[in-house]
Design goal:
This protein is an alpha+beta fold. The chain contains 9 helices and 11 strands.
């Protein structure tokens, strides 16, 4: 008899089911990723952000697949939380990127023993990194704005950053006061570096915390508590936008790899402001329905943590010359 290499009575019915929600050409691209875990197709029902008809909703279809990441043993040992100050709460301001940048400077300078926990001013970053962008907001009550951590770190490379006590946060103003240095002792870094992959981020995490961006789905984000965040899990999960976080550690639970992150929405998120995000889960938007602000996201399988970056300190002699 011929040797049967593969046999299935369900292959065509399964492919037809998948084809209802995912173009088979896209499915073949997914297979190239060699996913090695659960494959899910999810339908959530969203209220339209700016409905033409009261109560209008749309169906949004996501695919969640798992590509397991190996967390090195040396990475599992690190915990950078002690090198941060109190968890911040950004409230209604779009300043997560500024908070994370200032805290990364605090952490790396503490880790490298340049000082012992000096907190730096995220007010300065909001005021001076890209103030023109804040004036373009539709909401005139706020002049804060969204930006990447990497751009803010590059500002610190060029200008240094004031201490939080010298320029404390007091809101996002259309015309902030000038940058008068009442204290010449600034925080310096030597470079801002990006990291393209999760695997490389796991290696860099052995020597320092990282900055990254994550998608916020509600109500999943506010319901994390002690669990692992995996993106949309609720019948009406809605993508709210990207959020800057600090990555402070990594681990594995029940075969699922995750990273510990520190947020800037107060101690009520996760446990004391820290929570775990799956780095195995990949999200792909496969249906035609989506909110307008979601148009450019999840058009290919995307990890729940992206755009990793980190600061490097200056050589001590170079720093002394700058001061």
């Amino acid at each position: 008899q011929v040797e049967i290499l593969y046999e299935s009575d369900q292959l065509f019915s399964e492919l037809k089911k998948i084809g209802q929600y995912i173009p088979l050409s896209t499915f073949l691209e997914i297979l190239k990723l060699e996913p090695d875990g659960k494959f899910e197709i999810l339908r959530v029902k969203n209220k339209v952000v700016k409905p033409k008809v009261e109560g209008e909703t749309i169906d949004v279809v996501y695919t969640r697949l798992r590509k397991h990441r190996v967390v090195p043993d040396e990475t599992k040992k690190v915990d950078w939380r002690p090198f941060y100050g109190p968890v911040k709460d950004q409230g209604e301001h779009d300043i997560c990127w500024a908070i994370v940048t200032a805290e990364l400077v605090t952490a790396i300078r503490w880790i490298k023993q340049r000082e012992n926990g000096t907190e730096y001013s995220y007010q300065e970053l909001v005021d001076f990194v890209f103030p023109e962008k804040g004036k373009l907001r539709n909401n005139k009550a706020h002049f804060c704005y969204r930006l990447s951590i990497l751009k803010a770190l590059r500002y610190v490379v060029q200008q240094g950053i004031q201490r939080a006590v010298d320029r404390p946060f007091d809101g996002c103003k259309e015309f902030p006061p000038p940058r008068v240095l009442s204290n010449p002792h600034l925080g310096y870094i030597g470079a801002a570096k990006s990291i393209p992959t999760v695997e490389e981020a796991l290696i860099h995490l052995q020597t320092q915390p990282l900055g990254a961006a994550m998608p916020i789905f509600q109500p999943d984000y506010e319901n994390i508590k002690g669990g692992i965040y995996r993106g949309p899990m609720h019948p009406d999960s809605m993508f709210m936008g990207m959020h800057a976080v600090s990555v402070t550690g990594a681990g594995v639970e029940n075969g699922e790899s995750f990273m510990w992150v520190r947020s800037s929405h107060g101690v009520g998120v996760g446990k004391g402001g820290y929570f775990r995000i799956s780095i195995d889960a990949l999200i792909l938007r496969t249906g035609e329905g989506y909110q307008k602000h979601e148009k450019d996201y999840f058009i290919e399988p995307t990890p729940l943590l992206v755009i990793f970056c980190f600061p490097e300190v200056l050589d001590e002699d170079d720093e002394k010359r700058l001061k």
